[in-house]
Amino acid sequence: MARNVSTGRKLITTVVAWTIGILIFFPILWTFLTSFKTEAQAIASPPVFLFFDWTTENYSEVQSRSDYLKHFMNSVVVSFGSTLLGLLIAIPSAWAMAFSPTKRTKDVLMWMLSTKMMPPVGVLVPMYLIFRNWGLLDTRTGLVIVLTLINLPIIIWMLYTYFKEIPGEILEAARMDGASLTKEIIYVLTPMAIPGIASTLLLNIILAWNEAFWTLNLSAAKAAPLTAFIASYSSPEGLFYAKLSAASTMAIAPILILGWFSQKQLVRGLTFGAVK
Amino acid sequence: MGSITLKNVSKVFGAHAVIPSIDLDITDGEFVVFVGPSGCGKSTLLRLIAGLEDVSDGEIVIDGRNATELPPARRGLSMVFQSYALYPHMSVRSNIAFPLKMAGEDKASIDKKVEDAARVLNLTDYLDRKPRQLSGGQRQRVAIGRAIVRQPEAFLFDEPLSNLDAALRVNMRLEISQLHQQLKTTMVYVTHDQVEAMTMADKIVVLNRGRIEQVGSPLDLYRRPDNLFVAGFIGSPKMNFVTGAPAAAHQAHTIGIRPEHIALSKDQGTWRGTVGVAEHLGSDTFLHVNADGIGTLTARVGGDFAVTHGDQVYLTPDAERLHRFDEKGLAIR
């Protein structure tokens, strides 16, 4: 715990941490800066860093060419919808596996996780055909279903780990104290499970928001979320870096803000169980 | 009134009978301790009484009422768990108030009872804290507070002191005994520590492999163990067992002598031996002696008896306090 760290070491650690942080953040910063450049400056060589003619032209151009709000709403519906639907299925299943495991529980969990190891493109054609036959192509419903399915293993795993951490003796104590099943759920289980459910919810909204493979392949115009909105600026007629950057900035801004405000829960969610 | 009767109670997990069949009477107001090595079924037995596990067969009668099919909440029992099992998101006050809230009592009476319990347990200053801000001993007291507020028929304790350090354990042992004298409510207490059993119990139930080996008062078990298991389990240091010729001399297959019932001398005695290890506790010294033709014997002598490794000594067992066992391990009386 109280290890003596010399000032020199501290300095090195700080510099290294900042370097890594900046390296990771740099693409986002560059995208943000590029979105305020003209197309010519965006591809200028050597690249200009800060001293260019700042312009918001790209944003108005992007907004006039494609309706940002429509795509934004699609993204919101698809990511929130798929996460909520996923939670609705995952809570009871994770619950059952955490609180009354059988000897097959571990196998079921591993099997679910193994589906995430398969490259999604392997099932693209059958999925596409199913979606076409069922009239789900380019619909929000279709995207909600597919994103629910691909994120379900992760949601169940996260919730399972959380529920596992709730000590069984506490539930037994509630039973001894005279709590009925309903009261046990209201007063003891839910308050203890809520932080876990909240972290899972946040992480999955972000995963669903950023998901590009299925949303790009199964939507065209009507249901296209922000991922498709970005992709439309890398067209066969040529790349428009500045406009692409403006679109990207607009697409990631909402989720960045959400992530910023909930970073405590997110970090807890990602490192849960690792530290007591 | 908190009498508890077990009739032919058994518990089977899969193909494994953890408790083959147990009959036991616990009278109202008694402090009963279930003691035995780990895996002997003592916790399972407690959980069967609590209703946290269903019995496979048999009947549990609490306060004259058949409680076999009743859910835990309706058996009128309180339980203190090994891990304390406090509700982490609630303050100490809400933790203690929880059973009363579940019973639907009005707020004024809940407040009064919580304050009373807190006073008894020295928790008044901590009522608004969360469990994580408390020490182990304080947490244990909150768990006890939660158990006493609703005045149950009986208290069940599942190894409540095993998470505490040694000094605190001695304190809490005393506090629980005092609480029992104050409340005069039936207490059923599970432990693997025979010292806890000896010091706290009115009645000890020694369990081994799901069977009751012997039931009796602490001194009963110490003085008149029914078999080798009880003889070896109760008492510290452990009873010495000797087989062969020295046992045959007493018409027994095995004889048992407690370390405190062996007289030591440097000059003469029944058995001769060499001191292996001498453990000096100050007040007493435990000598592990390699006796010729018998094996290692433990003897307890006064702290003044000065011997060290390699010294020759003579041991004389107190014939009056010798325990004799037949080849099945049962006491010969």
Largest interface: A-B, 17 and 23 residues
Q: Strands of the largest sheet of chain A, in order across it? A: 1-2
Fraction of helical residues of chain B: 25-40%
Report the uncertain regions of chain B: none
Mean pLDDT of chain B: 91
Distance between the termini of chain B: 37 Å
- CATH architect. name of the domain at 66-232 in chain A: Orthogonal Bundle
**Tally of helical segments of chain B:** 9
What class, by secondary structure content of chain B? alpha+beta
What fraction of the residues of chain A are assigned to beta strands by DSSP?
Answer: under 5%
CATH fold name of the domain at 66-232 in chain A:
MetI-like fold
Structural class of chain A: mainly alpha
Structure write-up:
Chain B: It is found in: Cell inner membrane. Chain B: Belongs to the ABC transporter superfamily. Chain B: One of its GO terms (molecular function) is ABC-type maltose transporter activity. Chain B: It is a peripheral membrane protein. Chain B: Its main location: membrane. The complex is a heterodimer of chains A (276) and B (333). By secondary structure, chain A is mainly alpha-helical. Chain A has a domain at 66-232: MetI-like (MetI-like fold), CATH 1.10.3720.10. Chain A contains 13 helices and two strands; from the N terminus they run H-H-H-H-H-H-H-H-H-H-H-E-E-H-H. Chain A has a two-stranded antiparallel sheet. Chain A is globular. The model of chain A has no long low-confidence stretch (mean pLDDT 85). With 333 residues, chain B is an alpha+beta fold. Chain B folds into two domains: 4-231, 3-Layer(aba) Sandwich (Rossmann fold), CATH 3.40.50; 238-325, OB fold (Dihydrolipoamide Acetyltransferase, E2P). In chain B, 26% of the residues lie in helices and 32% in strands. Chain B has helices at 42-50, 92-102, 107-120, 136-148, 166-183, 194-200, 218-223, 228-233, 245-248, and strands spanning 4-13, 16-26, 31-35, 57-62, 65-66, 77-80, 154-158, 186-191, 203-208, 211-216, 240-243, 254-257, 262-265, 271-280, 284-291, 295-302, 312-317, 323-325. Chain B has a six-stranded mixed sheet, sandwiched between helices. In chain B, helix 2 crosses helix 3 (107-120) and helix 2 (92-102) runs parallel beside helix 4 (136-148). Chain B is globular, with a radius of gyration of 24 Å. Chain B starts with a strand and ends in an 8-residue tail after the last strand. The chains are: A mainly alpha (276), B alpha+beta (333). Chains A and B meet through helix 8 and helix 9 of A and strand 6 and helix 2 of B.
